[in-house]
């Protein structure tokens, strides 16, 4: 599987909109990743 074609940029505003219309809030997940990584993942 080609990973380049699977890349999706992190959405602005920390919200991902599904094709079905549902909006997913990513602030908590982003914070968890940054805490575990010990640095910001997005500037």
Q: What would you call the shape?
A: globular
Radius of gyration: 12 Å
Whole-number mean pLDDT: 86
Proportion of residues in β-strands: 5-15%
Largest sheet: 2 strands, antiparallel
Number of helices: 1
Layout of SSEs?
Elements: E1 15-17, E2 23-25, H1 27-37
Antiparallel strand pairs: 1-2
Name a few traits of the molecule.
1 helix, 43 residues, two-stranded antiparallel sheet, 14% strand, single chain
Q: How would you sum up this structure in a few lines?
A:
It contains one helix and two strands; from the N terminus they run ββα. It has one helix at 27-37, and strands spanning 15-17, 23-25.
Describe the structure.
This protein is 26% helix and 14% strand. The model has no long low-confidence stretch (mean pLDDT 86). With 43 residues, the protein is α+β, with helices and mostly antiparallel strands. The chain starts with 14 loop residues before the first strand and ends in a 6-residue tail after the last helix. It has 1 helix and 2 strands. It has a domain at 14-43. It has a two-stranded antiparallel sheet with strand order 1-2. The protein is globular.
């Amino acid at each position: 599987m080609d990973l380049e074609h699977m890349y999706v940029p992190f959405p602005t505003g920390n919200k991902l909109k599904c094709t079905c219309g549902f909006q997913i809030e990513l602030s908590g997940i982003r914070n968890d990743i940054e805490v575990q990584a010990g640095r910001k993942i997005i500037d």
